[in-house]
Amino acid sequence: MSDKAPILALRGVNKSFGPIDVLHDINIEVRAGEVLCLLGDNGAGKSTLIKLMSGVHQPTSGKIEMDGAVVALPTPRAASEKGIATVHQFGGTFPLMSIGRSFFVGVEPTKGWGPFKVYDRKTANEIAVKAVQDFGITRIDDGDRLVGGLSGGERQSLAIARAVHFGARVLILDEPTAALGVKQAAHVLRIVNEAKRRGLAVIFITHQVMHAMAVGDHFAVLIRGAIAADFKKGERTREEITDLMAGGETMAGLEASIEGYMADHAGHPPPAV
């Protein structure tokens, strides 16, 4: 796996909000068919790092590369067009929408012609159900079913299947098992392994060491906005990883300062260097 060029890499990335330094000299990379587990306790800087990779924030310094070439990700749309998809804790789904509609939100298939075009519910439902079932979620067989009736694990599966369907090459999963029970979490971990089998580069952000060890090939521990350790599967025990994570002081006070800074400078974000 190490002989492959990384799909996504961050090289010497720093991020500051005005006078507040948040991320320091971040160097990570992820390859096709690999799961990179980004571990860190609450307040370690994971959220800011996710926003850099998904185009919400831009680095203050350093560079982001895809397939070895430096890229700019000025917006989430730009990141999406590059094949970077981010799935947040509850899948970014819409509880009062049907499965088919939620799957295609913003890019709904239509039928008819010109001003007579209408949403093609049948096609949307068929494609959405097949995409989810291809990931082994056989319980979902009705595209008209409301997303709010799905379990947390099924919502995650729906969001991951949607990302793959629309051409994601890099899948960023933000704490996908944090609010799930044992059975649902195991279900999501199977979906992560399936995405890896299909050749996606997966970045799995979590503070749950056991879940990371179940799917991870490569691990990076984030403490106080810096990479404190970088290692491959089998090189550290669960206890060693837990001890590493526990060694980081929380950035809760720093994050509160950032929120205050952003509120004071609403509409005037600090320029990216």
How is this structure best described in words?
- The protein is an alpha/beta fold.
- It has a domain at 8-44 and 57-93 and 150-264: P-loop containing nucleotide triphosphate hydrolases (Rossmann fold, 3-Layer(aba) Sandwich).
- It contains 9 helices and 12 strands.
- It has helices at 46-53, 76-81, 99-103, 121-133, 152-165, 182-197, 209-215, 238-246, 252-264, and strands at 8-17, 20-30, 35-39, 61-66, 69-71, 84-87, 110-111, 118-119, 170-174, 201-206, 218-223, 226-232.
- The strands form 3 sheets. Strands 6-9-10-3-11-12 form a 6-stranded mixed sheet, sandwiched between helices. It has a 4-stranded antiparallel sheet with strand order 2-1-4-5, with helices on one face. Strands 7-8 form a two-stranded antiparallel sheet.
- The chain is globular and about 55 Å long.
- Residues 248-253 have low confidence and may be disordered.
Which properties best describe this structure?
about 270 residues, alpha/beta, Rossmann fold, 6-stranded mixed beta sheet, 4-stranded antiparallel beta sheet, 9 helices
Low-confidence stretches: 248-253
Average pLDDT reading: 86
Our measurement of the CA-to-CA distance between the termini, rounded to an integer number of angstroms, reads: 33 Å
Largest sheet: 6 strands, mixed
Q: Let me know the number of strands.
A: 12
Please give the share of residues in helix.
25-40%
- Main CATH class of the domain at 8-44 and 57-93 and 150-264: Alpha Beta
Percent of sequence in beta strands: 15-25%
**Order of H and E elements:** EEEHEEHEHEEHHEHEHEEHH
CATH architectural label of the domain at 8-44 and 57-93 and 150-264: 3-Layer(aba) Sandwich
Rg: 19 Å
Determine the CATH topology of the domain at 8-44 and 57-93 and 150-264.
Rossmann fold
